[in-house]
């Protein structure tokens, strides 16, 4: 009896040797394999980022301009409600620039964490159909977040240039280091939450609540000076500064908010001691956390398709 084309194809597939797919599952050896696997799919990563950006502004007349409206509206609300009505602007020099620096950094952190958390579930159709390194999806969320951050950064630089008397100093070097540290830390958190969200969908709702609390636990609409005066440099202040988001935001403020550095008298601001060193240590810890997060993610990604 002559075999059908389907039977012939099935026999050929059965005869093929099994090949390993993906990186090594070893806690140490698997790291380099995962990096190579992600690098091999870098073109797909770029396509996913482009897809997310285009989808966000699909059928929109103003397009990218909408990315500017939200931070500007937030700036106006906080400046008027907290700065003018509550009078905080009378204690914080160049309050508009101060708030904008914090909001820009917070928007980056918030978007990386929230979009990474839902990235695997949101791309469940692809995850269930074809193999590719699952880290690609949280990474694409980081790429999209950085794209939006760059747009807001343009507004921030314009605000610094036209709304304040910016003074050039070596503190400006804190800015890129703060951004890199924030992205690494946010991606590490997002990577672990992305894996957890596959198994427990309540994670994304818990993240929203946690971010709401963390916003007010960071010096965004109030300066670190108020925290220092309230806590007086005790262990609670050190616990407050242990938050990587706090360290990154304060570093960015010191880099771009010149009024806080040069102000004297009642406007004089307080900065944490050895801020550059703190930021460097935070970056080192964030890199270790990212490595651990990736290995945990790699350990559980094998069951993503079944769970989805």
How is this fold's topology laid out?
Blueprint: H1 5-15, H2 29-40, H3 42-56, H4 66-85, H5 95-117, H6 119-122, H7 124-127, H8 136-163, H9 174-199, H10 203-216, H11 224-231, H12 235-241, H13 244-256, H14 258-262, H15 275-300, H16 304-307
Helix pairs in contact: 3-8, 4-5, 5-8, 5-9, 5-10, 5-13, 9-13, 9-15, 13-15
Task: Write out key terms for the chains shown.
308 residues; mainly alpha; 71% helix
Q: What would your notes on this structure say?
A:
With 308 residues, the chain is mainly alpha-helical. It has one domain (41-307). Helices cover 71% and strands 0% of the residues. The chain contains 16 helices and no strands. The longest helix has 28 residues, at 136-163. The model has no long low-confidence stretch (mean pLDDT 82).
What's the pLDDT, averaged over the residues? 82
Helix/strand structural class: mainly alpha
**Number of helical runs?**
16
Kindly provide the radius of gyration, computed on alpha-carbon positions and rounded to a whole number of angstroms: 23 Å
Low-confidence stretches: none
Would you count the extended β strands for me? Answer: 0
């Amino acid at each position: 009896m002559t075999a059908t084309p389907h039977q012939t194809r099935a026999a050929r597939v059965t005869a093929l040797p099994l090949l390993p797919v993906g990186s090594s599952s070893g806690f140490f050896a698997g790291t380099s394999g995962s990096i190579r696997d992600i690098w091999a799919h870098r073109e797909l990563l770029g396509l996913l980022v482009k897809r997310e950006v285009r989808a966000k502004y699909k059928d929109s007349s103003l397009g990218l301009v909408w990315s500017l409206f939200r931070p500007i509206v937030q700036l106006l609300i906080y400046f008027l409600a907290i700065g003018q009505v509550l009078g905080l602007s009378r204690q914080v020099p160049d309050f508009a620039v101060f708030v904008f620096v914090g909001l820009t950094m917070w928007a980056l952190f918030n978007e990386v964490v929230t979009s990474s958390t839902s990235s695997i579930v949101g791309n469940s159709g692809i995850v269930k159909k074809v193999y590719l390194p699952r880290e690609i999806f949280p990474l694409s969320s980081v790429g999209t977040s950085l794209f939006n951050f760059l747009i807001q950064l343009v507004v921030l630089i314009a605000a610094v240039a036209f709304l304040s008397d910016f003074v050039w100093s070596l503190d400006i070097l804190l800015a890129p280091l703060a951004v890199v540290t924030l992205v690494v830390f946010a991606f590490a958190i997002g990577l672990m939450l992305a894996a957890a969200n596959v198994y427990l969908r309540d994670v994304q709702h818990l993240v929203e609540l946690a971010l709401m609390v963390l916003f007010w636990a960071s010096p965004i609409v109030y300066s670190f000076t108020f925290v220092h005066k309230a806590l007086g440099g005790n262990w609670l202040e050190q616990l407050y500064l242990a938050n990587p988001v706090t360290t990154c935001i304060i570093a960015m403020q010191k880099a771009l908010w010149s009024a806080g550095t040069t102000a004297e008298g009642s406007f004089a601001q307080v900065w944490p001691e050895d801020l550059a060193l703190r930021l460097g240590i935070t970056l080192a810890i964030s890199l270790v956390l990212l490595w651990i997060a990736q290995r945990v993610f790699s350990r559980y990604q094998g069951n993503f398709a079944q769970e989805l």
